[in-house]
Protein backbone atom coordinates (compact mmCIF):
# COMPACT_ATOMS: atom_id res chain seq x y z
CA UNK A 1 0.00 0.00 0.00
CA UNK A 2 1.12 3.46 -0.92
CA UNK A 3 0.73 5.18 2.45
CA UNK A 4 0.40 2.37 4.97
CA UNK A 5 -3.29 1.65 4.45
CA UNK A 6 -2.55 -1.97 5.32
CA UNK A 7 -1.98 -0.88 8.93
CA UNK A 8 -5.50 0.58 9.13
CA UNK A 9 -7.69 -1.33 6.66
CA UNK A 10 -8.19 -4.98 5.84
CA UNK A 11 -9.21 -6.15 2.36
CA UNK A 12 -12.85 -6.99 1.79
CA UNK A 13 -13.95 -10.42 0.65
CA UNK A 14 -16.66 -9.49 -1.88
CA UNK A 15 -17.71 -6.80 -4.31
CA UNK A 16 -19.93 -4.14 -2.73
CA UNK A 17 -22.90 -3.01 -4.81
CA UNK A 18 -26.18 -1.16 -4.39
CA UNK A 19 -29.14 -0.27 -6.60
CA UNK A 20 -30.54 3.23 -7.08
CA UNK A 21 -33.09 4.42 -9.63
CA UNK A 22 -32.63 1.35 -11.82
CA UNK A 23 -28.83 1.54 -11.85
CA UNK A 24 -26.45 -0.91 -10.18
CA UNK A 25 -23.49 0.83 -8.57
CA UNK A 26 -20.25 -0.76 -7.42
CA UNK A 27 -18.16 0.66 -4.59
CA UNK A 28 -14.39 0.78 -4.24
CA UNK A 29 -11.93 2.81 -2.22
CA UNK A 30 -8.61 4.46 -2.92
CA UNK A 31 -5.91 1.80 -3.36
CA UNK A 32 -8.45 -0.58 -4.98
CA UNK A 33 -8.40 1.50 -8.16
CA UNK A 34 -4.86 0.25 -8.87
CA UNK A 35 -6.01 -3.39 -9.19
CA UNK A 36 -7.92 -4.30 -12.38
CA UNK A 37 -8.47 -7.79 -10.97
CA UNK A 38 -10.72 -6.33 -8.24
CA UNK A 39 -12.84 -4.59 -10.86
CA UNK A 40 -13.36 -7.81 -12.84
CA UNK A 41 -15.78 -8.74 -10.05
CA UNK A 42 -17.87 -5.69 -10.95
CA UNK A 43 -18.46 -6.68 -14.59
CA UNK A 44 -22.01 -5.73 -15.50
CA UNK A 45 -22.48 -2.81 -13.08
CA UNK A 46 -23.77 0.44 -14.52
CA UNK A 47 -21.45 2.69 -12.54
CA UNK A 48 -18.55 2.55 -10.11
CA UNK A 49 -18.15 4.97 -7.22
CA UNK A 50 -14.52 5.21 -6.15
CA UNK A 51 -13.70 7.23 -3.05
CA UNK A 52 -10.04 8.16 -2.62
CA UNK A 53 -7.42 10.46 -1.20
CA UNK A 54 -4.84 10.68 -3.98
CA UNK A 55 -2.06 13.13 -3.23
CA UNK A 56 -1.47 16.08 -5.54
CA UNK A 57 1.69 14.50 -7.02
CA UNK A 58 -0.38 11.49 -8.15
CA UNK A 59 -3.34 13.29 -9.74
CA UNK A 60 -2.29 12.20 -13.25
CA UNK A 61 -2.32 8.58 -12.05
CA UNK A 62 -5.73 9.11 -10.44
CA UNK A 63 -7.30 10.31 -13.68
CA UNK A 64 -5.76 7.52 -15.78
CA UNK A 65 -6.84 4.83 -13.30
CA UNK A 66 -10.45 6.05 -13.00
CA UNK A 67 -10.74 6.31 -16.79
CA UNK A 68 -9.23 2.83 -17.21
CA UNK A 69 -11.76 1.32 -14.81
CA UNK A 70 -14.62 2.96 -16.78
CA UNK A 71 -13.23 1.56 -20.03
CA UNK A 72 -12.74 -1.93 -18.62
CA UNK A 73 -16.25 -2.10 -17.18
CA UNK A 74 -17.87 -0.09 -19.96
CA UNK A 75 -19.68 1.70 -17.17
CA UNK A 76 -19.67 5.15 -15.63
CA UNK A 77 -16.88 5.75 -13.13
CA UNK A 78 -17.39 8.39 -10.46
CA UNK A 79 -14.05 9.19 -8.86
CA UNK A 80 -14.45 11.16 -5.64
CA UNK A 81 -11.06 12.42 -4.47
CA UNK A 82 -10.70 14.11 -1.09
CA UNK A 83 -10.06 17.83 -0.78
CA UNK A 84 -7.75 17.98 2.25
CA UNK A 85 -4.92 20.41 1.51
CA UNK A 86 -3.45 19.84 4.97
CA UNK A 87 -2.43 16.33 3.85
CA UNK A 88 -1.82 17.25 0.18
CA UNK A 89 -5.10 15.88 -1.25
CA UNK A 90 -6.40 18.50 -3.63
CA UNK A 91 -9.62 17.20 -5.14
CA UNK A 92 -9.80 16.69 -8.89
CA UNK A 93 -12.82 14.42 -8.66
CA UNK A 94 -14.19 13.31 -12.01
CA UNK A 95 -17.06 11.55 -13.73
CA UNK A 96 -16.18 9.32 -16.67
CA UNK A 97 -18.51 7.91 -19.34
CA UNK A 98 -18.54 4.21 -20.30
CA UNK A 99 -16.40 5.04 -23.36
CA UNK A 100 -13.69 6.57 -21.15
CA UNK A 101 -14.37 10.20 -21.98
CA UNK A 102 -14.62 12.68 -19.12
CA UNK A 103 -18.04 14.23 -18.62
CA UNK A 104 -17.17 16.26 -15.55
CA UNK A 105 -14.00 17.22 -13.71
CA UNK A 106 -13.56 19.23 -10.53
CA UNK A 107 -10.62 21.47 -9.80
CA UNK A 108 -8.67 21.75 -6.58
CA UNK A 109 -11.43 23.96 -5.17
CA UNK A 110 -14.49 22.69 -3.33
CA UNK A 111 -17.09 21.83 -5.99
CA UNK A 112 -20.22 19.83 -6.55
CA UNK A 113 -20.12 17.69 -9.69
CA UNK A 114 -23.39 16.45 -11.12
CA UNK A 115 -24.17 14.34 -14.15
CA UNK A 116 -27.12 12.59 -15.72
CA UNK A 117 -26.31 8.91 -16.13
CA UNK A 118 -28.01 7.27 -19.10
CA UNK A 119 -28.50 3.54 -19.59
CA UNK A 120 -28.40 4.17 -23.33
CA UNK A 121 -24.73 5.24 -23.15
CA UNK A 122 -23.85 2.00 -21.34
CA UNK A 123 -25.79 -0.18 -23.76
CA UNK A 124 -24.41 1.54 -26.86
CA UNK A 125 -20.83 1.27 -25.62
CA UNK A 126 -21.22 -2.42 -24.77
CA UNK A 127 -22.82 -3.17 -28.15
CA UNK A 128 -20.20 -1.24 -30.12
CA UNK A 129 -17.15 -2.59 -28.27
CA UNK A 130 -17.84 -6.08 -26.96
CA UNK A 131 -14.91 -6.49 -24.57
CA UNK A 132 -17.00 -7.63 -21.58
CA UNK A 133 -18.51 -10.44 -23.64
CA UNK A 134 -15.25 -11.27 -25.41
CA UNK A 135 -13.25 -11.40 -22.16
CA UNK A 136 -15.21 -14.49 -21.13
CA UNK A 137 -13.72 -16.33 -24.14
CA UNK A 138 -10.12 -15.72 -23.09
CA UNK A 139 -8.56 -18.76 -21.45
CA UNK A 140 -4.98 -18.12 -20.35
CA UNK A 141 -2.87 -20.70 -18.56
Explain this structure to me?
There is one protein chain. This protein has a 6-stranded mixed beta sheet with strand order 1-2-3-4-7-8, covered by helices on one side. Strands 5-6 form a two-stranded antiparallel sheet. Helix content is 25%, strand content 25%. The chain has 4 helices and 8 strands. Strand 1 and strand 2 (23-29) form a beta hairpin. The chain has a single domain, classed as Nitrilase/N-carbamoyl-D-aminoacid amidohydrolase (4-Layer Sandwich), CATH 3.60.110.10. With 141 residues, it is of the alpha/beta class. It has helices at 36-40, 59-73, 119-128, 131-135, and strands spanning 16-20, 23-29, 47-52, 76-81, 83-84, 89-90, 94-96, 102-105. 26% of the residues are buried.
| CATH homologous group name | Carbon-nitrogen hydrolase
Shape: globular
Radius of gyration: 15 Å
The tally of beta strands, per DSSP, is 8
Helix content: 10-25%
> Order of helices and strands, N to C?
EEHEHEEEEEHH
Please give the domain count: 1
